[in-house]
Amino acid sequence: MHGYLIDMDGVIYRGNQLIPGAERFIHELRADNVPFLFLTNNSQRTRRDVATRLQRLGIDAGEEHVFTCAMATARFLARQKPHGTAFVIGEGGLLTALHNNGYAVVDRDPDYVVVGEGRTLSFEMTEAAVNMIRGGAKLVATNLDPNCPTQAGTRPGCGAIVALLEAASGVKAFSLGKPSPAMMRGARKELGLRAEHTVMIGDTMEPTSSAGCNSVTGRCSC
Questions:
Q1: How far apart are CA 113 and CA 93, in angstroms?
Q2: 0.85 exceeded by the pTM?
């Protein structure tokens, strides 16, 4: 048995247009009962939101076929510190994933400062986050993408927010999103497959960086 981990933007669609052949490829995977997951570094949306968007584009996929960086982050933190607390810079997808994994979202004395994408960032939030990090909270990023393409152009991504917090606090973040081995391994395990039976389909070739070295636990997460 083999399966696929599939990037979306640039592989399945570009903007609001399907890539030619994408619909047929996914249809054949479903017909042959080949396991697959769509991976996304967008922590704003829940897996149901992502699945709905794919369905509206004509892709036959359910929420069980979606694995987000928010899910990877929340599951990792739940293993590191069950029933912990987090101060969150992010939106619904990240908040939902943390709650689903037993985490409480707080505004003081958190175990972790967790950063995802968002459009509601304020200087007050970043100031609070910096003080929490300097006070001992661990800094965790859902991903380190510096920017995100939008219909209007480009907006700052999670990585840009994280860079600000790193510079102000003097603390490096640990990232769980692609291409972190933690996310890739989590997605593979979601399919119940061994590494040698799993194929990754993407549109960029980026080497994994220090994201694989766990600054939260001091261990390698790959």
A1: 16
A2: yes
Distance CA 5, CA 166 (A): 31
> Lowest mean pLDDT: which of 88-92, 96-100, 110-114, 147-151?
147-151
Residue 60 has pLDDT above 70, yes or no: yes
DSSP per residue over the chain, as a string?
--EEEE--BTTTEETTEEPTTHHHHHHHHHHTT--EEEEE---SS-HHHHHHHHHHTT----GGGEEEHHHHHHHHHHHHSTT-EEEEES-HHHHHHHHHTTPEE-SSS-SEEEE---S---HHHHHHHHHHHHTTPEEEES----EEEETTEEEE-HHHHHHHHHHHH--PPEE-STT-HHHHHHHHHHHT--GGGEEEE-S------GGGB-TTTSSB--
How far is the C-alpha of 211 from the C-alpha of 175, rounded, in Å?
5
End-to-end Cα distance, the chain:
22
**Active site amino acids:** 7, 9
Separation CA 27–CA 77 (nearest Å): 35
141, 169 contact by CB (below 8 A): no
